[in-house]
Amino acid sequence: MKGLKKHLLNREIAIKHILEKPASSFTPAAFHKLRVEIKRLNAFFELVEFSLKGFNRNKAIKPFKQIFRQAGKVREIQVEEALLKKYLTSSLLVGYRKDLRLQKSKERTTFYKLINESATGRMRKSIHKTIPMLAEIDKKKVNSYLKEKRNRIFKHLIQYELKPVQIHDLRKLFKSYYYNKDLVVKGVQNPTLDWPAELPELLGRWHDSYVISMKLDQVITSAGIDPEEIIHIQKIMGIISSESETKLRRIKEIVSASYRYDELKL
Fold it and tell me: In the predicted model, is pLDDT for residue 265 greater than 70?
């Protein structure tokens, strides 16, 4: 199928370009972009594994995993810092923020040590070993993959009551689906209805609210926090919780309506 090889090579080029950046240019956006590109590559390998017997996605993505995980450690701290800046004044949790900066510096140093010719060589080998297999994948297999992915999402939705851990899993399923639908198989007609574009974004914003609430809850229960700070932080947590509940209700409305519609079509 046309386009698959080009997409895979584009992922290689994008990842290589990011990893070649000097440390001074590795901004929060660069760490985020690197993780997104590896997620897109992993989703692509998932499509290949679905389409071809004998292809092992876990083996194919293995050379990228260590860098992905380490970039994730840096990224988590960056996200937490951004959320703290958004919800709290700079006079609150000064010591905690300092500890975050020190931890971030440590994780960044570890990340840079992982980037070497041996690591990038293994990544390149994995991608180019996959390329000859792509000729066996046609539009029918791709559409079958998309249909199976949609069914997994719907089964996931009806098994749970959208608790936090299930929403996190649902978010990952959506990403995998959209990475392949929108970026790999442009032009392939999928007869089923897609979810509103609002949903993936809403899941992401809900996840951010949930993460900062959990972090703040851990912080105020730790030793050394000023009682006056705790009172102020608890008020902010109440606001975040209210915003999170509003997002959660909207998520439930969308998935419920989408599921009923799909049932009627079938």
Answer: no
pLDDT category at 193 given cuts 50, 70, 90 is very low
- Cβ–Cβ < 8 Å for 184, 7: yes
Q: What is the DSSP string of 50-87?
A: HHSTT--HHHHHHHHHHHHHHHHHHHHHHHHHHHHHHH
The encoded tokens of residue 253 equal 């409305």
Tally DSSP H helices, then E strands, for the chain. Answer: 9, 0
Cα 187 to Cα 177: distance, rounded to the nearest angstrom? 15
Determine contact, residues 4/137, Cβ cutoff 8 Å. Answer: yes
3-state DSSP of 159-214? HCCCCHHHHHHHHHHHHHHHHHHHHCCCCCCCCCCCCCCHHHHHHHHHHHHHHHHH
- The terminus-to-terminus CA distance of the chain in angstroms comes to 28
- Of the listed ranges 24-38, 56-70, 156-170, 232-246, the one predicted with least confidence: 156-170
Number of Cβ atoms within 10 Å of the Cβ of 263:
10
As a whole number of angstroms, the distance between CA 70 and CA 220 comes to: 27
DSSP helix/strand/coil, 108: helix
The DSSP code for 137 is -
Give the pLDDT mean for 72-94. Answer: 87
**Nearest CA to 40 among 5, 72, 2, 12?**
12
Instruction: Please choose, from the candidates 53, 33, 43, the residue with its C-alpha nearest in 3D space to the C-alpha of residue 8.
Output: 43
Residues 49 and 172: their CA atoms lie apart, in Å, by 18
Q: How far, in Å, CA of 212 to CA of 110, rounded?
A: 25
